[in-house]
From TrEMBL:
Signal sequence residues: none
Cell compartment(s), UniProt: Membrane
Keyword Coiled coil: no
Protein keywords: Antibiotic resistance, Membrane, Transmembrane, Transmembrane helix
Highest taxon of the lineage: Bacteria
TM regions (residue ranges): 33-53, 68-91, 112-135, 147-170, 177-197, 233-254
Any single Pfam family the record assigns to this protein: ABC2_membrane_3
Membrane topology: Multi-pass membrane protein
UniProt domain ABC transmembrane type-2: residue ranges: 31-257
Principal location: membrane
Protein name, as recorded: ABC transporter permease
Length: 257
């Protein structure tokens, strides 16, 4: 085995070790687990337990309110994962010099960032699927009728959320600063996703503005796919554009030290 090949093998093994270690640390952090995995499905259960939310024609476009809120609780764990969970962790690693020390080992700092994005992305997707299952089994909410369109919008939304989290961690020198920035962006993101008012129920002018935001476009794309239509290409384009811009910005401004 050549020196180069041996180095690559050791690097891959070290990267796998980093991923396993970060998974263990994530599972030991109750705050992140609750925010990403428990809170969104629990919110759906609470809303679905309100009789008015289950009444026919109580929501926009003749839907029940609970039908309109399932896509919102699908988006919510992605926002939490990117802004509230992942960003402070990465900024904390920079603050404590962990990223700098890693540069002297076979594991390069990007491996840690990749592990964090993989873990939080998988947790967000698992929570989203759990919300879909609860909606179907507990409240008779139909599963997305346009499955491929829904999956495309879902994956783009995950990329956007994690890229946004990476951008926050790129600009934050400490975990506290990352938490502060994340909280500042978190609540507008929840509003655009429709947590307090579904996008379909917003005044036309406000809805047009919200649909230009990543999570507003994601909410509309998912609603269209859930109803059986292919998501509007304009909404998918907004998601793709945000994904490219946020990824490029986080790569441009990210510092390992």
């Amino acid at each position: 085995m050549s020196t180069t090949t041996a180095t690559l093998v050791r690097g891959r093994g070290a990267n796998s070790a980093v991923l396993r270690s970060e998974v263990r640390l994530f599972l030991r952090e109750p705050g992140s687990l609750f925010g990403v995995m428990v809170f969104p499905p629990a919110l759906l259960v609470i809303l679905g337990s309100i009789p008015a939310f289950r009444e026919a024609d109580s929501g926009p476009a003749g839907l029940r309110l609970i039908d309109a809120y399932v896509p919102i609780t699908v988006l919510l764990p992605m926002i939490v994962a990117g802004l509230q969970a992942m960003a402070p962790v990465i900024a904390g690693y920079r603050e404590r010099g962990i990223l700098r020390r890693m540069s002297t080992t076979p594991v390069q700092p990007p491996a840690l960032l990749g592990a964090q994005m993989t873990i939080h992305g998988a947790a967000a997707l698992a929570s989203s699927l759990l919300s879909l299952a609860i909606g179907r089994l507990a409240f008779d909410v139909k599963l997305p009728q346009q499955a491929f369109g829904y999956l495309l919008a879902l994956l783009l939304s995950v990329v956007v959320a994690l890229s946004l989290g990476a951008l926050v961690s790129a600009r934050a020198r400490t975990a506290k600063v990352a938490s502060a920035i994340g909280s500042t962006v978190f609540f507008p993101s929840m509003f655009c996703a429709g947590v307090w008012l579904p996008v379909q129920s917003m005044p036309t002018a406000l809805a047009n503005i919200v649909e230009l935001t990543p999570f507003g476009a994601a909410a509309q794309a998912m609603n269209q796919a859930a109803a059986g239509d292919w998501p509007s290409w304009s909404h998918l384009a907004v998601l793709a554009a945000w994904a490219v811009v946020l990824t490029a910005a986080s790569a441009r401004w990210f510092r390992w030290e």
